[in-house]
Amino acid sequence: NGWNEQIEVLKSNIASTLSSAADNKTLDLIDLIERIGIDYHFEEEIEQILGQDSNNYKDNDNLHTVALRFRLLRQHGCNVSSDIFKRFKSDEGDEFKQEIVSDLEGLLSLYEAAYLRTQGESILDEAVDFTKPHLAAAGAGAEDSTLAERIAHALKWPHRKGMKRVEHLFFISIYGKTQGHDEAVLKLAKLSFNVVQHLYQKELGVLTKWWIELDLPKRTSYARDRLVEVYFWAIGMGCLWKPKYSLARYCFTRVTTIGSVYDDTYDAYGTIEELEDFTAAIHRWDTSMQGIEPKMKIIFEAITSSYDAIHEMTTEEFGISYCWDYGKSAICCKFIPRRSAMAGQRLCTDL
Questions:
Q1: Looking at residue 121, what DSSP letter applies?
Q2: What is the pLDDT along the chain (351 residues), one digit of tens a residue?
Q3: pTM of the full predicted structure?
Q4: Which residues pair with 292 in a beta bridge?
Q5: How far apart (Å, rounded) are the C-alpha atoms in residues 289 and 285?
Q6: Is 96 helix (H, G, I), strand (E, B) or coil?
Q7: Cβ neighbour number for residue 238 with a 10 Å cutoff
Q8: Cα–Cα distance between 125 and 117 in angstroms, integer?
């Protein structure tokens, strides 16, 4: 409760700063808020600002501002043209101007923006080829030590490809060492990180209890036990790290953890004949499982109980249960073709 009270006060102060900042400073603040993992507090404000800013390019904007605006807009689904970077190319248009090489902040922003390119955007392909060697050569010698760290990190793992929670932790550390940083922003980032981390621990505790009670790893000793790994995977999927997606993390972890067991069953345990019978029984959703190998019966019981629980939870939350019938029919068919190919057969072509 004490943490939540502090968070609400800090949110109010930062929201005021966000609404009153100058244009370019607003973009920097939005980028910071997203990088340190507090953007879920300001989703409406950010969408409103970026919606108003989608065509707000000025002729005197520097490379950092242009690239940052481009990246933020694309991250939020805006189809902004990459032609805006043509102004930073030579008059002949065949390469980027050498004068931008000394602008490390701008180069880094261009490098990160280029990773949101789509097929056929040659100017952004060229941007990666141009910025990467210059950043590698100059980054270590940058006067700003935090900029040097950011460059080294981006070259190893570009922002677009990073796992959000790992990126948040890295940038909280970097921001704390940045000269002139905003203590309110830093404090909100640390408090929010701890609150969300506590939520993850509670969720994982509930899932661990379910997994222990299911006792599937002991009953199928050939299969991998991947509960924690799968939950970590869920956190790393797009926006699923945000607190409001607790149900999505829970459902994904249950389905995928059991999915790992029947993956191993198809890959390393059952014969083709056993798996054909097993798949047919699942398509029928035949709870009797007559004539099915004993360990496969155990897996099917785990599948049905989890799908029934998820069906109940999603129906309670949303009023309907999405893709319920398809989920049942597709649950094993994805594994049969791989195993069948090993046996030179062609099976399960109905999906």
A1: -
A2: 678 899 999 999 999 999 887 677 899 999 999 999 999 999 999 999 998 876 677 778 899 999 999 999 999 999 899 999 999 998 887 899 999 999 999 999 999 999 999 999 999 999 999 999 999 998 777 788 899 999 999 999 998 898 999 999 999 999 999 999 999 999 999 999 999 999 999 999 999 999 999 988 888 888 889 999 999 999 998 899 999 999 999 999 998 999 889 888 888 888 888 888 888 887 777 777 778 888 888 888 888 888 888 888 888 888 877 666 666 666 656 655 555 555 555 444 444
A3: 0.87
A4: none
A5: 9
A6: strand
A7: 8
A8: 8
Q: Which domains does the chain have, with CATH numbers?
A: 2-184 (1.50.10.130), 215-342 (1.10.600.10)
Cβ 335 vs Cβ 262: under 8 Å: yes
- Report the SS3 class of residue 164: helix
184 exposed, middle or buried (CB, 10 Å; 0-12, 13-18, 19+)?
middle
Tokens of 151: 């460059």
Q: How far apart are CA 200 and CA 322, in angstroms?
A: 24
Q: Assess contact for 67 and 112: CB atoms under 8 A.
A: yes
Can you read off the two tokens belonging to residue 306?
């989890």
Provide the H-helix boundaries in 92-245: 104-114, 122-138, 145-156, 164-176, 183-214, 216-219, 227-235
Provide the sign of the torsion angle of the four alpha carbons 315, 320, 324, 325, taken in this order.
Answer: positive
Q: Name the DSSP letter for residue 332.
A: T
